[in-house]
Amino acid sequence: MKKIVFVVLAALLLLLMTPLVAADVFIIWEWDTTDDDVMFFRYQLDDQSDENWTVVDWSERYFTYGPVDENEQHILYVQQSYDKENWGESAFLSSVDAETWEEEPYDDEDISFSFFDDEQFLGDAAFVEPDTHSETQESEEQQLGSIENEVAPFVKRIVLMAGAGVKLDNKVGTSLFNPEDTYIRLRTRILPSITVEYINSNVLTLKNSLSLGYVMGVGAHLYQGASSSNFLWGTEARALALGSFLIGERSALEAGAGVSFMLAPPHIHKDSSIDSLGIFFGPMLRLGFRYNITLVWSIEAAAEMQVLFSDAFVPYELSTMVRLGAGYAF
Predict the structure, then answer these.
(1) Which pLDDT score is estimated for 125?
(2) CA neighbor of 31 nearest in space, from 169, 133, 131
(3) DSSP β-ladder status, 231-247 and 126-134
(4) Under CATH, to which class is 22-144 assigned?
(5) DSSP states of 106-145
(6) In the β-sheet with 54-57, what is the strand arrangement from edge to edge?
(7) Which of 4, 12, 112, 256 is the Cys-Cys partner for 240 at CB 3.0 to 4.6 Å?
């Protein structure tokens, strides 16, 4: 009998010493810079080894980790840089501070964390208080396409646009273009005008809201002969330097300048005996607008003007294009 009582008491003691099952949570660290000229951050969880830093640009200021046991302790280290080469000292913040936790689940309430004292806080990046979210809340945030109202920087993206254009040389300076009548005359309307572009808008950051990048793309533009119903496609390749200026959290103005190369079918020549492609090239100017509708998708608009010369360096075309489309960031 005594042995049975001892076994029962031991089982009860073991049960009382067993911790309650903790809920799985997501931990979100947020931080800010103390200098508007800072262009890059890098962060690392629970370590500061040289090869394990994750580098992000100035617009990404949070890190999410989970799901994890709410009683686990993790430390996030963050450094900041002006040039992506020289980094400041680490700022750090723990996910669990010396606070008393309530026993009921925390899925529906925020869990607060304390800051380190000034003597303990290293580095010059300022942490915003981290928060925890349940797995359900995290899933809902992902479906909405944003976390803490942060917007993806849209540094690299693919953009598909379509629109129409006008041959301005039919209206302005007509005698200057195609003066030797080497090529057939084309109607003023250019429809459709389609482009696919790869855009990297942040090769060099000048300020938080201003960056330099580039555009590379291909396009196709449908022309029609002025004296016939014949249609011809102009196939184009382009490369431009690009400047981007952020206006608010979700939109940006862009301006670029570069060159365009276009190939046209042989019947672009007025002499029907010529069976070679028409080759044209020239400078291009561009103005654009981007609005980020989710973390990866954007609405894009662009207006362009270009001057094309023939392979004999004779002015052939002055045109302008207006297009609307969508971008996908990655």
Answers:
(1) 52
(2) 131
(3) unpaired
(4) mainly beta
(5) -TTS----PPPPTTT--SSPEEEEEEEEEHHHHHHHHHHT
(6) 54-57, 40-45, 75-81, 91-94
(7) 256
| Residue predicted with more confidence, 129 or 75 | 75
Beta strands 278-292; 91-94: pairing state: unpaired
Strand, helix or coil at 324?
A: strand
Helix (H) or strand (E) holding 224: strand 210-224
Which residues, at least 6 apart from 3, have a Cβ–Cβ distance to it below 8 Å?
Answer: none
> pLDDT by residue (tens digit) across 143-197?
433 333 333 356 789 999 999 999 999 999 999 999 888 999 999 999 999 999 9
Pairwise CA distance, residues 4 & 2, whole Å: 5
Fold of 156-329: Porin (2.40.160)
Q: pTM for the complete prediction?
A: 0.58
Q: Sketch the domain layout of the chain as residue ranges.
A: 22-144, 156-329
Helix, strand or coil, per DSSP, at residue 238: strand
The mean pLDDT value for 201-208 works out to 82
Q: What are phi and psi of 285, to 5 degrees?
A: -120, 150
Dihedral sign from CA coordinates of 132, 136, 141, 145: positive
Return phi, psi of residue 257, to 5°: -145, 140
Number of residues in the chain:
330
Burial class from Cβ neighbours inside 10 Å (0-12, 13-18, 19+) for residue 75 reads middle
pLDDT tens figures, 16-50: 444 444 566 777 778 887 777 788 899 998 889 88
Contact 55, 86 (CB under 8 A): no
Distance CA 210, CA 58 (A): 12
